Amino acid sequence: MLELSNGVNVEIMTADFKSVRGYTAVALLLDEVAFWSSENANPAAEIIRALTPTMATVPGAVLLCASSPYARRGVLYDAFREHFGRDGDDILFWKSATRTMNPSVPESFIAAETAKDPASAAAEYGAEFRGDVETFTSRETIQACTPQGRIELPPVAGVRYCGFVDPSGGSSDSMTLAIAHRDEWSGKAALDAIREIKPKFSPDAVVEEFAALLKSYGVTQVYGDRYGGEWPRERFRYHGIAYRPADKTKSEIYLALLPMLNSQTAELLDVRRLEDQLVGLERRTSRGGKDSIDHAPGGHDDVANAAAGALVMAAGAESRQINWSAAAGNASYSTSTGKRLFQHGNYVSDGTNLTKLPEPPPPPADLSYVWDEIKKAWVKPWVDPNSR
């Protein structure tokens, strides 16, 4: 902090909407605001809302936002749409290319950068918002696929689970694991568990922990990317789990997940970090027309990558086969269709259609001792009295 003789302090602070409160500000400068995330724990809009009251008692106080443009979203792009070129507007939006603001930058330098990546150079040196970077999906879409309050699902005997891991060396990125299954009744792919170990950590200790969780769900092989060559294969194999490189790239996995999210055929977990990372993904289109999905500059997608991989794997997995012949002892007849019905656990089939019987609501904690008896009474085979 720099203390001036007139009693004004010049201070550099982190972009945190909680820590910036309580000050009285004469001038505020938000640097590279176009790259401030709109989706993490400190969204740019919330930081600006927290800063605005600090100028309320200072006549002529100013809020300055300086940045190269980036994607067509966020507080800078919103300000551009609302205030640029508006005569008489209280907010001045200045948009100018690098050579206009600083003629000492050689034209040859900008031309060389443009030849390398026209879209990036147009934003960096031409002050143009990028049209090749779009959001992957919206927060509303993610929330529509998230059962409220569902943090994790326990393993269920007989259900086939899929695991996907995003490995890490333990020094910079998180190492993550996700487990999912395909619900036979609804056809949806449902996320069951997520684990994230943040750096720094021992990779081998994390593999051991992940292997134990996979085994608890009956998973004997896990999929992941080709990070680390033979290392993840060897360490997972040592702990009794086969590691298989995924056939799809990360972008292909995200692109396969998108229609599942839009159609709500994927069920997520109510984990804020997962939601933030999915919403923070960006969709870029190359000059060849190929789409790629990745996190924004400075962002992370370790949790989202593992979750997407597990859900896509589960959606493509063959559903568990029920041996209906073994359930013949529970056969009965439907009075409406005349078809013979077979029951296996909570599932009923007439040989063509498969129906899952609903479960009763969980009892209060003090009645938990009768839960098993309630379930038995609820799912016992129905018998047509006319067939006796």
H/E series: EEEHEHHHHEHEEEHEHEHEHEEHEEEEH
Could you tell me the radius of gyration in angstroms?
28 Å
Q: Fill in the CATH topology of the largest domain.
A: Nucleotidyltransferase, domain 5
Question: What is the rounded distance between the termini?
Answer: 89 Å
How would a crystallographer describe the biggest sheet?
Answer: 6 strands, mixed
| Residue fraction in strands | 15-25%
Could you describe the 3D structure shown?
This protein is of the alpha/beta class. It folds into three domains: 2-95, no CATH class; 139-316, Nucleotidyltransferase, domain 5 (2-Layer Sandwich), CATH 3.30.420.240; 324-387, no CATH class. It is 29% helix and 19% strand. It has twelve helices and 17 strands. The strands form five sheets. The protein has a six-stranded mixed β-sheet with strand order 10-9-6-7-8-11, sandwiched between helices. Helix 9 (250-262) crosses helix 11 (302-316). The protein is elongated and about 70 Å long. The model is unreliable at 318-340 (pLDDT under 50).
